[in-house]
């Protein structure tokens, strides 16, 4: 089995599980640190986007390695406050799917944007992701714990994406990075139609 196919099979298998596609739980379930920690790790949309941000940052290199993920985490945290303040965002689910698709395409095509543009784009994506998290956050004391959990897991997924990207670059395995990017883009297409 070629590396390209072996990289796509796990993602394709996960895509066949519609209940796994979106991590958005009901309000009653969205309380506490553990729920916040598990939220980004329990949905294909969030996992793909968070890993893709880290992988694309590593692929872009330079200051992007830390600035792009830091922008995402910061803007996502701010975006999570919007629903609590009664501020809605249009097309949140579609925006999340679009973020997965575009990040996958950027990785697969090895697109390197200027730092300001890449950070601005990732910041827009982070608003949608943050809004989704905030819409599910309880307005109780556990809401802060929930927020800390989802911010921590998001940062961890970014670090995993960065580590993978840097490792593949050191091993001169750009084709693996492109295959992962293609798989992420395909997940974005899948998320757009479910």
Task: Summarize this entry quickly.
The chain is an all-alpha fold and 194 residues long. The chain has helices at residues 3-15, 18-21, 32-41, 44-60, 64-79, 92-108, 115-135, 142-170, 174-193.
Structural class: mainly alpha
Percent range of helical residues: over 70%
Low-confidence stretches: 1-30
Oligomer: single chain
Order of helices and strands: HHHHHHHHH
Quantity of strands, as a count = 0
Give the helix tally.
9
CA radius of gyration is 16 Å
| Average residue pLDDT | 85
Number of domains: 1
Q: What percent strand?
A: under 5%
How far apart are the termini?
29 Å
Q: What does the overall shape look like?
A: globular
Secondary-structure map:
Blueprint lengths: L2 H13 L2 H4 L10 H10 L2 H17 L3 H16 L12 H17 L6 H21 L6 H29 L3 H20 L1
Helix pairs in contact: 1-9, 3-8, 4-5, 4-6, 4-8, 4-9, 5-7, 5-8, 6-7, 6-9
Task: Give your account of this protein's structure.
The two termini are 29 Å apart. This protein has 9 helices and no strands. The protein has one domain. The protein is globular and about 45 Å long. With 194 residues, it is mostly helical.
Keyword list:
about 190 residues, about 0% strand, about 75% helix, mainly alpha, disordered N terminus
